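Is this the right way to post structure tokens for a design question? Let me know if I should format differently. Anyway, here goes:
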């Protein structure tokens, strides 16, 4: 019953439920919340051996904790689900559970980069990622080149021109325009230079997209969103293919940053993940119907959703994703004023930033998540003043449409 590898399961749904079990001696059915900061040594020698890595066992919860470790194992299993390494063996991955998605990004960047290095990334990005690169990395002497990563020729040219690039960071689908980057093409372009590739897989989750299948080195998540699924905790995960690097440099960076999660948030995350495939299917099904409905509505100028045949990356999204996901953005014909009016009139849908919860969340990026950016930068990232972002929930789609209809009515 215990220790199932992801390859044991025919289907992702079973892996999401059964990939981990409590390793304690009391046969707890659920993974317990190990609310402890430290762990007891039987002897001085045992303590020494644990610190020296000669003996397994927990030391201190900033380094590792049984509840957070279970969540790490679960996320790594799901990102690796059904995948093989170069030798045809089941792919092994290592995850580190962080306090937030931003924490996971910090471990990624400070593990790989030093002053003088550069990151190549996309112009349209999650607001916090953009600011992390342009503010914190810049202060550390690490440059970020923001280009259109969906343009493979532009990527090839940038790699040729800048020998300082050490990391290509993808976000696909990207917030808030749902632009998709060809993950496989980017990995192929990076390989001859030995450049690492990371991807923010928050919008897709491993159920909709498994970037390790296309050759990335790292996946990171804001586990706050669809992985948790219920909006009950903040969390982040960094998942890596190079186990040695994850257990040495990345783990060291993680410990020194103090970027660790905590047992209670990890417990909530584990419970949320059990229903991940069910939720993602329903989210995607509802989102497709909402996007089609919105694109026919007279008050709507444009809908950005990678599951619509009119989206420029519809075919690519189909190639690399199981379903297109729950997040979309749309623009109202009468700009900012229409946007505010619409948001204020919502009855059921939730007015909030964030995404990936069971309820439908609606926000206004220009005044909320992307407010910190300069207006020109915002426009380059596709965030116009009248843009509305929507994370379609798993309520009955009829009720979502009813709410949108009354809020859009003149
Ligand atoms: C929320 C989010 C993040 C940041 O995650 P936190 O958990 O808030 O730190 C990063 N990327 C994307 C795409 C997000 O939606």
């Amino acid at each position: 019953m215990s220790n199932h590898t992801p390859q044991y399961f025919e289907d992702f749904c079973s892996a999401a439920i059964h990939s981990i079990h409590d390793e304690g001696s009391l046969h707890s059915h659920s993974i317990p919340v190990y609310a402890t900061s430290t762990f007891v040594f039987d002897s001085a020698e045992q303590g020494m051996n644990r610190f020296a890595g000669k003996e397994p066992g927990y030391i201190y919860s900033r380094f590792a904790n049984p509840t957070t470790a279970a969540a790490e194992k679960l996320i790594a299993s799901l990102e690796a689900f059904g995948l093989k390494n170069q030798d045809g063996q089941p792919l092994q991955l290592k995850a580190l559970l962080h306090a937030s998605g931003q924490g996971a990004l910090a471990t990624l960047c400070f593990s790989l980069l030093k002053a003088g290095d550069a990151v190549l990334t996309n112009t349209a990005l999650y607001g916090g990622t953009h600011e992390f690169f342009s503010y914190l990395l810049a202060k550390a002497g690490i440059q970020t080149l923001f280009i259109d990563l969906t343009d493979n020729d532009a990527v090839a040219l940038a790699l040729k021109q800048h020998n300082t690039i050490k990391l290509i960071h993808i976000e696909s689908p990207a917030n808030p325009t749902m632009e998709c980057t060809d993950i496989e093409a980017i990995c192929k372009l990076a390989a001859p230079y030995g450049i690492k590739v990371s991807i923010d897989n928050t919008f897709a989750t491993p159920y909709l997209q498994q970037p390790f299948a296309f050759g990335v080195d790292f996946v990171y998540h804001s586990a706050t969103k669809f992985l948790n699924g219920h909006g009950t905790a903040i969390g982040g995960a960094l998942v890596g293919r190079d186990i040695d690097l994850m257990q040495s440099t990345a783990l060291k960076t993680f410990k020194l940053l103090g970027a660790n999660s905590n047992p209670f948030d990890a417990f909530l995350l584990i419970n949320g993940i059990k229903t991940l495939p069910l939720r993602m299917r329903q989210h995607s099904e509802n989102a497709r119907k909402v996007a089609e409905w919105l694109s026919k509505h007279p008050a709507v100028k444009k809908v950005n959703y990678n599951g619509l045949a009119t989206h420029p990356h519809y075919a690519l999204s189909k190639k690399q994703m199981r379903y297109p996901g729950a997040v979309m953005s749309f623009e109202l014909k009468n700009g900012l004023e229409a946007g505010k009016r619409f948001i204020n009139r919502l009855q059921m849908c939730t007015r909030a930033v964030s995404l990936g919860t069971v309820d439908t969340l609606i926000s206004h990026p220009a005044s909320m998540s992307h407010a910190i950016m300069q207006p020109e930068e915002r426009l380059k990232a596709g965030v116009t003043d009248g843009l509305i972002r929507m994370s379609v929930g798993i309520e009955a789609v009829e009720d979502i449409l009813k709410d949108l209809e009354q809020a859009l009515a003149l």
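Format looks fine. Someone answered above. Worth noting: The domain at 6-273 is CATH 3.40.640.10 (Aspartate Aminotransferase; domain 2). DSSP finds 15 helices and twelve strands in the chain.
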